Amino acid sequence: MQLSVIIVNFNNDRVLRGCLQSLPPALEGLDVEVILSDNGSSDGSLQWTREKFPEIQILENGDNIGFAEANNRALAIAHGRYILLLNPDTIVRPESFRTMIELLDRETSAGAVGCKLVETNGDRQISARSYPTLTTYLYHFLGLEDRFPRSPRFGRFHMSYWEGDDARPVDWVCGASLMIRRELLDSVGGIDPYFFLTYDEVDWCHRIQDAGHEIWYTPDTEITHLVGQSDPQSNPNPDSKIKYMTVERNSRVHYFIRHHGRFYATLVEALHIASNAALLLKARVFGTNQSTETMLERRLFLKLYWRTAMRIPRAGLSALLRRFGRDANYAILSNPYLEGQEPMPAQVSPQSPSK
Fold it and tell me: pLDDT digit string (tens) for 125-169?
């Protein structure tokens, strides 16, 4: 089989329909399977998919086990020589899959490839980036990235100095559309399930490169990405926002510990705390032109760290009890999406093979 397309769904009915309806022209002529890995959706999206696309294989995970683990369960049953991770909030072009397959066939050093992502109006999204570092975050918070976008130094993280108009190796590409060679799963493994929602593709690309393969970007095909319209990013409720920010923070900490060490990760989080506090203080004293939503997110970020600080005494006691053989499991960094949830085994719905 040439290709396995994996789509993770969690109550994304409003965008999933457009994604699936755009697939048939892109799949025509390919030996391909489509796997929908569902995290316990209750919005009718599975019923609609079964009715409209009976050839799609549905993997029912039962609960919201996260983006990474949902992909891993689908990777375990995928048969394609190439595997494409595709967000449900995307609209593909008829040539999208063939273009990425052709690049991997041509560039033997490439382990993975991503393509150009665009807004609904055709504006380019930044889908190829350099790895995040303490320095790139500092440039971002100081406003140097926005002030000098053409600078290879200050615009390094988002590669804003580059128009994205030529195919080339990059550090990492956006996981909204990421195609890899299946053979890499044997040497690199799947996605780290700790990355519940974010930083998963950054870490995966890093590991693929560490294994001696390149990450490529191609502008020769476009995929429309409805960024921010899938749950939970689109939920305006402050409690939902802080839940999302919590797992984003946890993923960032995990990424920097893995690739740079604990001290470096601590410095990154200290920079985030200090920068958000300083920008809020500046806005209070001098005013700001930033959006109300941005300022709300800064306040929620500081609230998140206040809650984290309140967890430290109990987490310390838990670690002490474990040292003496007592049953205690309380962590400083918790995942609000998984608290009180027991993992459920995945169930594959019987479907006819994709054509």
Answer: 999 999 999 999 999 999 999 999 999 999 999 999 999 999 999
* Of the candidates 253, 131, 263, the residue with the CA atom closest to the CA atom of residue 192: 253
CB neighbour class for 309 (10 Å; exposed up to 12, middle 13-18, buried from 19): exposed
Q: How far is CA 202 from CA 165, 287, 322, in A?
A: 22, 35, 33
Please state the pTM of the whole predicted model.
Answer: 0.91
Q: Which residues are CB-contacts of 285 (< 8 A; sequence separation ≥ 6)?
A: none
Q: Are 300 and 293 in contact (CB under 8 A)?
A: no
CA separation for the pair 103, 72 (Å, rounded): 24
Task: Give pLDDT tens digits for 202-240.
Answer: 999 999 999 999 999 999 999 999 976 665 666 778 888
Answer whether 221's CB lies under 8 Å from 100's CB: yes
Q: Is 162 left (phi over 0), alpha (psi -120 to 50) or beta?
A: beta
Q: How far apart are CA 315 and CA 75, in angstroms?
A: 35
